[in-house]
Amino acid sequence: MRILVTGAGGFIGRALVSNLSKAGHFVLAADNNIRGNLNTLDHVKNIEPCLCDVTDAASLDHLVKGVDAVYHLAYINGTKYFYSIPDKILEIGIIGTHNVLKSVLKHKVKNFFLASSSEAYQLAPLIPTPENVPLVVPDVLNPRYSYGGGKIASELLTVNYLRNAKIHWVIFRPHNVYGPQMGFEHVIPELTRKINAVKEDKSPEISIQGQGEETRSFIFIDDAIDAILKCTLSSKSSDGIYHIGTMEEVKINTLVQSIAEILGVKVNIKSSNLALGSTPRRCPDNRKIVDLGFVQKNLLRDGLKTTVSWYQEYYQTHKKEIL
Which of 57, 62, 150, 225 could be 99's S-S partner, Cβ–Cβ 3.0 to 4.6 Å? Predict the structure, then answer.
């Protein structure tokens, strides 16, 4: 198939493009290179890098023409950006998704796949969390919810623009995808940096947001891509929403100690107040992707070793820049 991937220079986008290429598809890899970097795909065969901003309808439209499927991943990730540029996040989430969907309809693309997020449902009323829980914005005045709000809007646009169209659509919600080269604003790289910086101290101590009893469920990038491909391109998949994640719920305190153990150090944890709007507990119900044949191949302890080792080497190599 000829497939367009927006946000192709991002962490999940790069891995998706690479796997689609290996499967024999020709991929148009689109990104504006503001947060992602298309140069990271130079080694990937069977692709065409395309500099494109999804908020520019004209530049986007010619890429959509003639493709068999669109994976729409373009967005801005990283918690600090939720607070600093909420307007830009909403612009990409709403106008960008509108533009992509209008082109998909115009050119009668057969398949449309939207990357949403667990942030769309925020404080889940049920753990593990199924796909049919209510989507909410708890406080419109808190800029943190620009991200989740934009994802809710993009889901609404997808369902309703394609409601009467003969287009196969899937919304997939990734839950804490991690791995080497995932960026630096996320919890695992940040904890690795902090622990690595104090490991030579007599009494190593790091500070964390919250009390450490908060939980997350992490999925290694290879497993996440496998799950995404199963719910989008598998002959067994149907129109609908799928949670991409594992049901291996872990406390942040436990995560800290696991990373510290990999780095060969014991650390004391200094807790603090949880940032307003942060979610105290998150774990998806992934039975829908399991029913499609998904099997987790990388347990957290194994994926952490690979990821932490990569970041440890990076932080050692770039020590002066980080300090």
Answer: 57
Q: What is the pLDDT of residues 295-307, one digit of tens each?
A: 999 999 999 999 9
Cα separation, 274 vs 82, in Å, equals: 16
| Alpha-helical runs (H) found in the chain | 11-22, 57-64, 79-84, 86-90, 97-106, 145-161, 187-198, 221-232, 252-262, 287-291, 300-317, 319-322
Please give the structure tokens belonging to residue 273: 């107040």
Contact between 29 and 59 (Cβ < 8 Å): no
Residue ranges per structural domain of the chain: 2-174, 178-217+247-278+298-322
Between CA 7 and CA 35 the distance in angstroms is 9
Q: Which CATH superfamily is domain 2-174 in?
A: NAD(P)-binding Rossmann-like Domain (3.40.50.720)
Residue 318 confidence class, pLDDT cut points 50, 70, 90: confident
Give the pLDDT of residue 319: 64
Phi, psi of 137 (to 5 degrees): -115, 100
Q: What is the CATH number of domain 178-217+247-278+298-322?
A: 3.90.25.10
CA distances from 292 to 112, 179, 211 (A): 19, 23, 37
> Facing residues of 208 across strands?
none
